[in-house]
Amino acid sequence: MTFFHWRLLLQSAGGPFLDGWLLSIIGVALIGMTPALGLSGTDLSLAGAAALIGIFFGGLVFGRMTDIIGRQLMYTIDLIVLVVGSVLCAFVDHAWQIILLRFLIGVAIGADYPIATSLLAEWLPTRQRAAMLGSLVVAWFLGATVATFLGFAMVEYLGEDSWRWMLASSGVPGLIILLMRIGTPESPRWLISKGRIDEAEAVVRKIYGQDADLSSIRDAESVRPKRLGYSALLQGEYLKRTFFCGMFYLCAVTPVFAIYTFGPVMLSAFGMNEGNLSNIGYALISLLFLLGCLPALRLSETIGRRPLLLWSFALMILPFLALGIAPEAPVGLIIFWFCLYAVTSGGPNILEWSYPNELFPTDIRATAMGVITAVSRIGAALGTFLLPLSLEHYGDGGTMLIMAAMTAVGFIISYFLAPETKGRSLSEASGV
């Protein structure tokens, strides 16, 4: 790890930081937005799920574009859309406007996931790869935590009418991150995969010095079958990897997005509806989602990816079971179970971006990450859309049991399909 790597990590993490901010601030903003815009139950569900639907299309389309035209150009375009969309949210007057803008913001977020993660993965040393890619997820939760506490403070001191400022607030960090990303070098692995050897050598020598040698990377990339596309993800070993990454990602992220989008609503359903109590509990849970990722970063490089994933899924089932069986428990115990889930979810959370980038070659790395992101958001969008309806029809206990079942599916899929990539180079891990 050199200074260049740390700087690239900071630039790449800016996107997930902003993504976490955008996807979580809506949870607090909906409290004031609902009466102000007269949102119906359907409007409320669509406002919460619109960004996730946008992420589906953004990942599916722009992941492939990133493999075709390069990582560097897409690295800045998506942030421009994020900043502009965030600012426009402050001026909405109708439900359809916030739903449309949240959808467009989601498209940009879905594009950023494969762009930032593939670029960073292709520059990182083997021994730090999983931890550094996992750090992007930490940045996501950091952005979500900062936004949640900011939303809580704005409700406390400015009132619920401050929801417009909440939604526009991400424009400030977005502009800073955009300026930081200007001038980021292209991935030498991608350049080699396109036959642009001279450009790859120039980039590497600019970063590492004139004596830098990329012959090992060039040799590894030269044996790859070229012109891979979407169809490669539906064949042989890559089909199995696509299914594994997409499904474990879906099972892990759906409850997380439901909690972030409707956290205060869920906690109110459990009896925490006095004053600002639901927002306080929501902010605490958001902080623990962040803290739970930190030990997982180290564990991914010590015990390995597979054991970390299995143990985390197994422990994540317990809080949902407890909340489903005893939804009338005291407030303190309810917060404890939600906090336990937040802490134990760190393992799958940091591997959601590590595994896809390790298991697919350069020609389809961003494509695979985009498709897997899209698959995960199908469940996340449906879960976020259906959560208010589930709370209404099945109650808080039944909803928690559904989440426990989904988490158990993630464990079963990981048990049978999760590979171990610890200590393997990017070329080795992505080979069949």
From TrEMBL:
The family this protein is said to belong to: Belongs to the major facilitator superfamily. Sugar transporter (TC 2.A.1.1) family.
One Pfam family here: Sugar_tr
Main localization of the protein described in the UniProt heading: membrane
Limits of the Major facilitator superfamily (MFS) profile domain: 8-422
Stored SUPFAM superfamilies: MFS general substrate transporter
Localization per Swiss-Prot or TrEMBL: Membrane
Domain of life: Bacteria
Membrane topology: Multi-pass membrane protein
CDD domains per record: MFS_SV2_like
Annotated protein name in UniProt: MFS transporter
Signal peptide (UniProt feature, chain positions): none
Transmembrane segments: 21-38, 44-63, 75-93, 99-121, 133-153, 242-260, 280-297, 309-327, 333-355, 367-387, 399-418
Keyword Transmembrane: yes
Keyword Membrane: yes
Database matches in InterPro entries: MFS_dom, MFS_sugar_transport-like, MFS_Sugar_Transporters, MFS_trans_sf, Sugar_transporter_CS
Keywords, sorted A to Z: Membrane, Transmembrane, Transmembrane helix
